[in-house]
Design goal:
With 424 residues, the chain is of the alpha/beta class. It has two domains: 88-345, no CATH class; 350-404, no CATH class. 34% of the residues lie in helices and 20% in strands. It has a nine-stranded mixed β-sheet, sandwiched between helices. It has a three-stranded antiparallel β-sheet with strand order 2-1-16. A hairpin with an 8-residue loop joins strand 10 (248-253) and strand 11. Helix 6 (110-120) packs across helix 13 (317-328) and helix 15 (347-365) crosses helix 17 (387-404). The longest helix has 19 residues, at 347-365. It is globular. The termini are far apart.
Length: 424
C-alpha cells in the first residue's frame, strides 16, 4: 500500500520538505520551530502532541503539493516552450548597470539591482531574503535589507540551506510594500500563504526568484572546506561564486588571508551530491510561480570574457511594471530575447524536469510518497524523451531508492537550531 502523507511530520520524514520555513510562519500557535540538521537541511521541529493530528500547514507546504499556475493563472499556453519553463510575458537578457553589483552578483546582478530599485524608487520598506550568517558564514540566515550596502553584502549565490519564509511575519506587519526573494520552492510557499493571510498579500510588493538546481546540505559545504584544509571556525566570509562570472568557491579567514579557490564547476559538482530527495523531485527549477525569475545566461558564457549576464523571465503584470520601471530608471540594461535563449542556456535544468515524470512513476511503483504536482506539463515533457532515456530514468530511480532507503520513513534527528531573523 502506498504510504499516505497525513501531516507535516510525514512530509519531513519521507524526505519531501524543502526547508522553506513557511510552516513556522503559518502556525499561529507557535508549535513549529526550525532547526538546521547539517546532513539534511533546515527542517521544522514539532510539538509532537499538538501537531500529530493537525493538517493546517499541508495546504501551504510546497513539499506536499504545488500548482504551477498559482501566480500566472490558468491561461492557455501559446508556445511549446511555455510547457517547458512556464508562462513568460516577456523574456530578457542582460545585467545590472552598476558595475559593482554586476561583478559581485552570481551572473548579471539582476535580482540585486531590482531589489535596490524597489527600495530607492518604488519606496518599498525592505527586502526579505537570505544571506550569510556572520557567526557561521557557511550557513544562511534570513535578513531584512533596507539600503544599497546591505543589498551588496548579500550578492552572489548561497548554496546552503535557507528558510526565508520564516521572516514573512515582518512583511505582514510592515506599514508598506516589501520585496521577497527566495528559491522557487520558497516563492511557491509564499504564493499559497498570501491566499491565507490577506495582510501578507497586501504587503508583498514584488516576489523574485532565481533559477535553482537544488540546495545542498550544510555538510556539503563543510566537506568542501575539509577538502582544501580549511577550519570553518577561522572563516570570516565565504563565497560560493560571484566576483566574476561564474566566480569561484573561496573563503577569507579571520587574519585576512584568502583560502584556495575552487572553480564553480568543481565546487558545484561536489555539492550536488548533498542535495536532499525533494530537490531531485523539483518541477520548477526556473521559478514559474514568482513575479520575475532570473538566472545565468549560460549560452553567453562560452568563449566570453565579459562580466555576467542573466536571463529574466517576467511572469506577471506586476513583475512587468517593476522591470520596465527599473529599465527606465537605469538600474538594469536588457534586450528582448526569445524562448530559444532559455532552452539553450538552461539545458541541464530542463532535462531534469523532462525526466521527473519517470522519477515520480518509479516512486509510485515502489509505493514511496511523492509531492503532488499539478499544471506543470510533466507528462508532455516526458514524452519528448527517447525510449532509452525513459528506461534509464525509471531504472536509475529504482536503484537509488533501494540503495538510499527511500522506501522507508527516515525521521530527522534534529540538532542545531536555525538562526532567528536578523537585519543585514
Amino acid at each position: 500500500m502506498l504510504h499516505q502523507i497525513k501531516n507535516l511530520k510525514d512530509v519531513v520524514d519521507w524526505g519531501l520538505c524543502t526547508g522553506c520555513g513557511a510552516c513556522s510562519y503559518h502556525c499561529r500557535k507557535g508549535n513549529i520551530k526550525l532547526v538546521n540538521v547539517p546532513e539534511v537541511g533546515i527542517r521544522p521541529q514539532f510539538d509532537s502532541n499538538a501537531c500529530a493530528k493537525c493538517t493546517d500547514c499541508l495546504p501551504i507546504c510546497p513539499g506536499y503539493r504545488l500548482d504551477g499556475e498559482l501566480e500566472t493563472g490558468h491561461v492557455a499556453k501559446t508556445a511549446e516552450s511555455e510547457h517547458e519553463f512556464g508562462t513568460a510575458l516577456e523574456i530578457w537578457e542582460g545585467h545590472a548597470l552598476s558595475p559593482e553589483i554586476r561583478f559581485k552578483g552570481s551572473s548579471g546582478g539582476i535580482l540585486s539591482a531590482l531589489a535596490l530599485y524597489c527600495l530607492e524608487q518604488e519606496k518599498m520598506k525592505f527586502v526579505l531574503h537570505s544571506g550569510a550568517d556572520d557567526s557561521k558564514p557557511w550557513t544562511n540566515t534570513t535578513l531584512m535589507s533596507t539600503n544599497r550596502s546591505e543589498i551588496l553584502a548579500c550578492t552572489g549565490s548561497r548554496y546552503a540551506p535557507a528558510s526565508p519564509c520564516d521572516g514573512l511575519r515582518n512583511i505582514e506587519e510592515s506599514d508598506g510594500p516589501c520585496v521577497f526573494i527566495g528559491k522557487p520552492c520558497d516563492v511557491a510557499a509564499v504564493a499559497m500563504l498570501r491566499r491565507e493571510h490577506p495582510k501578507l498579500d497586501q504587503n508583498l510588493g514584488l516576489v523574485l526568484t532565481f533559477f535553482c538546481a537544488g540546495t545542498p546540505s550544510t555538510k556539503g559545504t563543510l566537506d568542501l572546506l575539509t577538502n582544501i584544509d580549511v577550519d570553518p571556525a577561522k572563516i570570516k566570509s565565504l563565497r560560493y561564486r560571484g566576483e566574476g562570472w561564474p566566480g569561484t568557491f573561496h573563503a577569507v579567514l579571520d587574519d585576512g588571508s584568502a583560502t584556495e579557490s575552487i572553480s564553480y564547476t568543481d565546487s558545484w559538482n561536489h555539492l550536488t551530491g548533498y542535495r536532499p530527495l525533494r530537490c531531485n523531485l523539483c518541477p520548477d527549477g526556473l521559478g514559474r510561480i514568482a513575479d520575475i525569475s532570473c538566472g545565468d545566461a549560460w549560452h553567453a558564457l562560452a568563449g566570453s570574457s565579459e562580466a555576467g549576464r542573466s536571463l529574466v523571465l517576467v511572469r506577471t503584470e506586476r513583475g512587468r511594471a517593476i522591470l520596465h520601471g527599473a529599465i527606465a530608471a537605469g538600474y538594469v540594461e536588457l534586450v528582448r530575447v526569445g524562448p530559444g535563449a532559455v532552452l539553450t542556456a538552461q539545458t541541464s535544468l530542463l532535462q531534469r524536469r523532462r525526466e521527473l515524470f519517470g522519477r515520480l512513476l518509479a516512486m509510485k511503483l515502489l509505493m514511496i510518497p511523492a509531492p503532488k504536482f499539478v499544471k506543470f506539463s510533466l507528462l508532455r515533457s516526458w514524452l519528448t524523451l527517447s525510449l532509452r532515456r525513459k528506461v534509464q530514468t525509471i531504472m536509475g530511480t529504482i536503484r537509488r531508492a533501494a540503495s538510499r532507503g527511500w522506501w522507508r520513513r527516515r525521521p530527522v534527528v534534529q540538532t542545531e537550531p536555525a538562526r532567528e531573523l536578523t537585519n543585514a
